[in-house]
Amino acid sequence: MPIKIPDSLPATATLEGENIFVMTEYRAMHQDIRPLNLLILNLMPTKIVTETQLLRKLSNSPLQVQVELLHTLSHVSQNTDASHLSSFYTTFDQIKDRKYDGMIITGAPVENLDFTDVDYWDELCEIMEWTKTHVHSTLHICWGAQAGLYYHYNIPKYDLGKKLFGVFPHTVVRKRSPLFRGFDDVFYVPHSRYTENKLEDVLAVPELQLLAVSEQAGVFAVKSQDNRRFFITGHPEYDPDTLANEYFRDVNKGIDINVPNNYFPNDDPTQPPQVRWRSAAQLFYTNWLNYYVYQTTPYDIRDI
User: What does the pLDDT look like over 234-249, one tens digit per residue?
Assistant: First the structure.
């Protein structure tokens, strides 16, 4: 949240020069405030785990957020009980006439498939097209980011050959981006994927801005010039044991999988994971929610 100070205080220019969010008294007095309406399209098979991870990050701010959960009709979930979906989730046909301040489209373990081979691809395309007129700001995560970059900007994904797996250091490219206000010079994010987007493909699209990268993990954060769409290739919302659960699951299945990078102390899976991304993750989601949803969405949601 911003610090509110007198309009003419000399510190205002200094703080703004340091990328600190300052709100003048005039702006504070003329703000209209209401709960934010946020929609989460959960494409992950373990929906309860994913919804809990995201809600944990979205809840740790002073903002009042009303969250709805969305699932696809064109795919039958094998890992989430139907009663949970019917009790807590909605479908696109039920909400397509409504508007939302923000939306999150999660990842999905389908990156080894061509986009058009995913059974809910057509439905997802319809939803992504709908966001252009019905959602103020949409955040795409991991495969959801790859799908969004492909649908909106025709940017392909590429096979990595082996799973990118671990917690990797990142740096901010656009130092004054509000999305990364308060970040350290180097911050860590978990990744778990078999495909990537190439830097040169992103840079070739004038409508996109590259925000953050990793030497090992490549492109991390990209946004549209109009701030309506954000794309991140990692999982800052992951729990401390998420990569461990994936690692042991694959080992038990006999899958050739490396120990996740920068995760277990001394790369020893018998030791508890070392969490080094939690604070950056919280700051990331809070910044998106504050600067790109709350601060800019119309007070009358019908104006989106």
Answer: 999 999 999 999 999 9
In CATH, the architecture of 34-239+276-303 is 3-Layer(aba) Sandwich (3.40)
**Residue extents of the structural domains in the chain:** 1-31, 34-239+276-303
Query: Which of 135, 134, 177, 175 shows the shortest CA–CA distance to 287?
Result: 177
Residues designated catalytic: 142, 235, 237
Helix 121-134 / helix 143-153 crossing angle, nearest 10 deg: 70
- β-partners of residue 232 are 141, 221
Token pair belonging to 223: 């946004």
- Strands in 106-157 per DSSP E: 135-141
Model confidence over 57-116: pLDDT tens digits?
A: 888 777 888 899 999 988 777 767 788 888 889 999 999 999 999 999 999 999 999 999
Task: Scan for tokens 């989460």, then name that residue.
Answer: 40
Per-residue pLDDT tens digits for 115-153? 999 999 999 999 999 999 999 999 999 999 999 999 999
Q: 3-state SS string over 5-42?
A: ECCCCCHHHHHHHCCCCEEEHHHHHCCCCCCEEEEEEC
> Whole-angstrom Cα distance, residue 36 to residue 64?
6
**Separation between Cα atoms, residue 148 and residue 184, nearest integer Å:** 28
- C-alpha Rg value of the chain to the nearest Å: 20
